[in-house]
Design brief:
By secondary structure, the protein is α/β, with parallel strands linked by helices. The chain has ten helices and twelve strands. Helix 1 (7-19) crosses helix 4 (63-94).
């Protein structure tokens, strides 16, 4: 049997059954008595039985009416709980952001950012995913992440960027090597050693930055060993008695057998760490996250759009 009872029928019936007066129920529902009466009669026709006895202006529930009142209250309460759960789920989803983070940048960003965000935006649910730059740009285009913290620059019209902070680029050498005793290491002396660098597929921006540093200094260096991440780069530097050029935050993971020293270049070479996101994405929680991210590191970078 197809019974097209709607929630409005149940709400109207509950009001009439509790008030036992069309006038009072209509006032409670902000409607008019004739319309309310029609809805009750329609409900009775749909269920095929009388729910209310009518004697003039007096109403009384039938046995079926008392059962309908109990069940209608239960149904409306359950529907209300379902709607509340759905709303809460929607709010949680709206407050959730998926953030891609460049391999190694966690050591630079997380110790400062995570406590700051917990204090400033405790209801913002941040989900971080460690990815390489190519993966992050693909994920931004596919909308599987909302933003990325990565090495800049990024030259794509559909990707907007903000400079988060600026890192000094350091020379990483074995602690046993004579160059490790210098406070600042000349790049031309490093060029005699095997050069260890992260692959182009994993770190294209870092590769570009290193090439620019060498070109500006008039020094030719060639990659001897390619690695897939910063940790393996550091390990390989020690293993082959070579060197690498990496952001200063690499100092956080260096073993005792490897050291990081500034380059003997003035001004010191630096590279930006940026926040990237889809151009035109005005999602309020993303805007809030970007605002707080820049605020967190405002004393370490020139804040503003990164000019590519």
């Amino acid at each position: 049997m197809n019974i097209a009872v709607e929630l409005r029928h149940l709400r109207y019936f509950v009001a009439v059954a509790e008030e036992l007066s069309l006038t009072r129920a209509a006032r409670r529902l902000n409607t008019v008595s004739p319309s309310l009466g029609n809805q009750i009669r329609q409900l009775e026709e749909l269920v095929g039985t009388t729910l209310l006895h009518r004697e003039g202006h007096h109403l009384a529930l039938t046995e079926a009416g008392r059962l309908m009142l109990s069940e209608a209250r239960r149904i409306l309460e359950e529907v209300g709980l379902v709607l509340e759960k759905v709303q809460c789920a929607g709010e949680a989803e709206a407050a959730r952001l998926s953030i891609g983070v460049y391999h190694g940048a966690e050591w630079r960003v997380f110790p400062r950012l995570l406590p700051f965000m917990r204090a400033q935006c405790p209801r913002l649910d941040l989900r971080f995913r460690t990815m390489n730059p190519v993966e992050m740009l693909d994920a931004l285009r596919m909308r599987t992440i909302d933003a990325a913290i990565m090495r800049g620059p990024v030259c794509e019209p559909e990707i907007a960027t903000e400079r988060v902070l600026t890192d000094r680029i350091m020379a990483v050498v074995p602690a046993r090597h004579p160059l490790a005793r210098l406070k600042r290491i000349p790049l031309d002396e490093l060029a005699e050693l095997p050069f260890v660098i992260i692959s182009q597929e994993v770190a294209p921006q870092l590769r570009q930055l290193v090439s620019q540093i060498a070109e500006d200094a008039g020094v030719q260096i060639r990659a001897s060993v390619e690695t897939e991440n910063m940790l393996s780069t550091v390990i390989t530097v020690d293993a082959v008695s070579g060197f690498s050029l990496l952001p200063q935050y690499v100092e956080r993971i260096l073993p005792k057998t490897v050291v990081a020293r500034p380059l003997a270049i003035s001004p010191p070479p630096t590279g930006p760490l940026i926040a990237a996101y889809r151009t035109g994405n005005t999602q309020p929680n993303l805007t809030l996250f970007l605002q707080k991210l820049l605020e967190c590191f405002q004393d370490e970078a020139e804040i503003g759009p990164l000019i590519n």
